[in-house]
Amino acid sequence: MTMANVERKPNCDIIIVGGGSAGTLLAARLSEEPDSRVLLIEAGDEAADPDIWKPAAWPTLQGRSYDWDYRTEPQAGTAGRVHHWARGRLIGGSSCLHAMGYMRGHPSDFQTWVDATGDCRWSWDELVPVFQAIEDHPLGGDGIHGKGGPLAIHLPADEVSPLARAFIEAGAALGLPRLEGHNSGEMIGVTPNSLNIRDGRRVTAADAWLTKAVRGRKNLTILTGSRVRRLNLEGNQVRSLEVAGRQGPVEVFANQVVLCAGALESPALLMRSGIGPHDVLDAAGVGCLIDMPEIGRNLQDHLLGAGNLYAARKPVPPSRLQHSESMAYMRAAVFTATGQPEIVVGCGVAPIVSERFQAPAAGTAYSLLFGITHPTSRGSLRISGPEVGDRLIINPAYLQTDRDRKMFRQALEAARTIGHEDELADWRERELLPRALNSAAEMDDFIAQSVITHHHPCGTCRMGKDLDAVVDANLRLKTLDNLFVVDASIMPNLTAGPIHAAVLAIAETFARWHRKMDPERIPMR
């Protein structure tokens, strides 16, 4: 693309890059101001596949045309395996693909964010009203959960699988508290998972925020099938964006740019634009305009062992929800301890295993999934070339620390302890996986073969007050006045469970700050 052939588009006030969970929320919230012209740019199309809204169909969505289907580098910590990372390429993003679990996180998770930024807006206490504004929860109005917000939260009851009920009873028998969902601030315990489902259908972020009324706003434009190739800089601001779409190359201009392209594509766009680690950009053939060594680093993801597999004594009925019906969070090695979770065991109402194992027929077996909540391994992301089609080099550095390997062994032991409890005796015929494990090395080998991604990449444009942090507490890129990053990439560390709720809270917090700020605080072009 040469700029001589680029059509110049009229200016708008705000460009949002990425129509996933954060981008759809921000498009709705920032366009509430009628004088603010908002452009949302999404690489994919509108969601159309009817399977998206069928909760039990979610595992089959991966690999379809609207999945980016990224591939990691071979991972030494997982027996040299390459992992597929499903991410949504459509309006609504990964909220159209994920398992619909809604878990805010533990209060201690967000204290780490406060410590990183020095800003109490990122504390649990300050985020509770933000979460409440997002949620329409059956317990809403109790002072903890939200009522009447855009996003439906379903707390399953009668439709919970009898197998999952037995799993919950087994955890309770071992001393885990019974909870009403995972979102009160207490996460350690047993409960059915809270889910983004209403009337038996998935609720995506686009369903929640890009309603017919929002889409009808004259000041909001949604551009699909378009990728931002590069940010063009002028001084300490973004001057314009080069966009490749169905109508050919265009150049678009805005006073402010907000990146919501996710933990992979937001740092990749910065790097293609000459902003990032000097050595990475040199290797990719991109001239370095602003050397920011931390962009693309601090990559984190949750893993789940798949799985601790059991042959069933009787047919396991199909899930009426989405197969993974209950996650039990706990401290390692002590079922009765409280506080911030360290490990998790989940009940899979299906024989869920990694690609290294043969899954039995549906209905004949079930899996207990196991993982750690706060891995200490840190990976990286880098571009391989200057164009949008050049492969991203994704190295999550799975299981590279002794602590992570030790905690995973404890998570496996916890799964097997629950799996052999009397409360599951009516379902358990025999344990199929793992087979006999006689040493820590054998446990590590099984874990390496069995783990799969929990689909929670984050951290690659982390926020912080330290000089190396990529964005500040207001989510502004530290080296530019009018560029913000608002997605999972800014998280300094993982929350204890699925990160979708936290991503939405990040976007809502930014929207609130943006509406309150003095316009003079963000220089306009």
Please describe what this structure looks like.
Belongs to the GMC oxidoreductase family. It comes from Phyllobacterium bourgognense. Keywords: FAD, Flavoprotein. There is one protein chain. The protein is α/β, with parallel strands linked by helices. It has a domain at 157-193 and 301-455: Glucose Oxidase, domain 3 (2-Layer Sandwich). It is 22% helix and 22% strand. Strands 18, 19, 20, 21, 24 and 25 form a six-stranded antiparallel beta sheet that branches. A five-stranded parallel beta sheet has the order 10-3-2-14-26, covered by helices on one side. Helix 1 (21-30) runs parallel beside helix 11 (500-516), helix 3 packs across helix 11 (500-516) and helix 9 packs across helix 10 (440-450). The longest helix has 18 residues, at 402-419.
- Give helix % range: 10-25%
Q: Provide the CATH topology of the domain at 157-193 and 301-455.
A: Glucose Oxidase, domain 3
Task: Note poorly predicted spans.
Answer: 1-6, 520-525
| Cα-to-Cα separation, first versus last residue | 24 Å
Cofactor: FAD
Binding site for FAD: 228
Protein name: Pyridoxine 4-oxidase
Domain Glucose-methanol-choline oxidoreductase N-terminal: 88-111, 262-276
